[in-house]
Write a structure and sequence with these properties.
There is one protein chain. By secondary structure, the chain is mainly alpha-helical. Helix 2 runs antiparallel to helix 3, helix 2 crosses helix 10 and helix 3 crosses helix 10. It is globular. The two termini are 17 Å apart.
């Protein structure tokens, strides 16, 4: 009885610790998302839904969204290795990732047209030129965002969830500074410089935390065999993670490429609507998934699969309690929400109508977007990469097909609907594969038992 009591206490403390970690990260993300909202409000006020705003959103897509997905995938692939506390690998991985990021930074500076001609291919010539100028001047941001995934992974493994969350506050502050002051002083160059400044501020706290860890600084004696093994481990792990985790960024790139052929402001309207979706997605979905990834890896490594599955169900159920009411609010109160958040300055009635319609269609897939973040990490922690790659590839192709079909009938609204349908389809495939191959069935947990102290998960 005493042993069982100790085990139950330990499990309870682990569960409580995970929720506390998720809570801390949620607090940081709340502050970050608040500033992110303020940033979007200022963009809407200054630019409205216009070609200039479209050009800015297309230019910023590569350094922030696409490079961010690459960097995050590298970071996630490093978490299982870093969980073993092998400090000798840290500097080697940072060196390799830095070279990789520097290469793409120079590539963007020299050939910005490679990106703009793909994502903004439907733009008029003058809008394309604006986007090229913006992207070329954002080249330093590619490097900063490129190494951010490593620094965040280091923080997560060392139980520091707050610094990466706070980094978003500094990042959004830099962008706000650019929109309010630098754009007025330096036009397009000011906007681009603010992205570079914001990206540097984003890595500042995790970089400081990394440099303060003495073991990570001193243990630099790495054998050649270890270096080769690490390179193989990093890239063989990174590429699958990238293919899976960058689905949303790929979908955004596809949506913006198709939207560039639609009416002026289509990209802007979709962006402003999705930024509202990203609020609960980032605060709850990303926070829960980030905290659970090291936990899943540790439990699977120790052979405690049952505890891993129970904890995943706990978080999925808790997530649904939060997200479903938010989804209904976004659909039923879409106009009120858009009017409160964006309706000022250059954001006129046309912009209001376009954005509220996009928000309603995006909201249909909100719960699936959040749940997918957790389910993907459940696959990864069990060493299963092939299935998520197949499922994610199918989801991207489905989104592309639906985009091409629905855009003809619903214009930009069809692009938002396609994103939701592909996200729901992806969730259903994830759930089916987890049940079929791993006997993991999604279920609702009896929270009365938890609060009464009877739950042993």
């Amino acid at each position: 009885m005493a042993i069982n009591g100790k085990l139950n206490l330990k499990r309870f403390l682990i569960c409580e610790s995970l929720f506390i970690s998720a809570g801390l990260m949620t607090m940081g993300l709340l502050l970050s998302k608040f500033l992110g909202f303020l940033r979007e409000i200022l963009i809407a006020k200054v630019f409205g839904v216009s070609y200039l705003c479209d050009a800015y959103l297309v230019a910023i897509l590569f350094p922030i969204s696409i490079m961010g997905a690459v960097s995050q995938s590298m970071g996630v692939s490093l978490i299982p290795l870093f969980s073993k506390k092998d400090f000798s690998k840290y500097h080697l991985s940072l060196f390799i990732i830095s070279l990789f990021s520097l290469f793409f930074s120079f590539l963007v500076f020299l050939f910005p047209q490679l990106v703009i001609n793909v994502i903004g291919q439907g733009f008029p010539i003058t809008v394309k030129e604006q986007a090229k100028i913006l992207l070329r001047n954002m080249a330093p941001a590619v490097f900063f965002i490129g190494i951010s995934g490593f620094l965040n992974a280091f923080s997560y493994v060392n139980k520091n969830y707050f610094f990466p969350a706070l980094s978003g506050i500094l990042y959004n502050s830099g962008l706000i500074l650019g929109i309010v002051y630098l754009y007025k002083l330096f036009s397009l160059s000011g906007l681009a410089f603010s992205v570079n400044l914001a990206s540097f501020l984003y890595i500042l706290l995790p970089l400081t935390f990394f440099l303060k860890r003495e073991k990570a600084i001193r243990n630099l004696n790495i054998a050649k065999e270890e270096a080769l093994y690490f390179l193989k481990f990093l890239f063989l792990s990174f590429l699958p993670y990238l293919l899976v985790s960058s689905v949303s960024q790929i979908n955004v790139a596809i949506d913006r490429a198709i939207a560039s052929f639609l009416e002026e402001g289509s990209i802007s309207a979709l962006n402003f609507a999705y930024k509202i979706i990203e609020l609960p997605l980032g605060i709850f979905g990303f926070a829960f998934a980030t905290v659970l990834m090291p936990y899943f890896s540790e439990k699977f490594y120790n052979g405690e699969k049952e505890q891993m599955i129970k904890q995943a169900n706990n978080f999925l159920f808790f997530l649904s309690l939060i997200i479903l009411p938010i989804t209904l609010a976004f659909i039923l109160l879409n106009e009120e929400i858009i009017r409160i958040v964006y309706f000022r300055g250059a954001f006129n009635e046309k912009a209001l109508i376009m954005t509220k319609e996009a928000l309603s269609f995006y909201s249909l897939g909100l719960l699936a977007y959040c749940a997918n973040l957790i389910l993907i990490r459940l696959f990864w922690s069990m060493g299963e990469i092939k299935l998520p790659i197949i499922i994610s590839t199918i989801a991207v192709l489905l989104n592309l097909i639906l985009d091409l079909i629905l855009a003809k009938f619903l214009s930009y609204k069809g692009l938002a609907l396609a994103t939701s349908l592909s996200g729901i389809f992806r969730f259903l495939l994830f759930a089916f594969c987890l049940s079929y191959y791993f006997q993991f069935r999604l279920r609702l947990v009896n929270w009365k038992e938890i609060f009464n102290g009877k739950y042993d998960g």
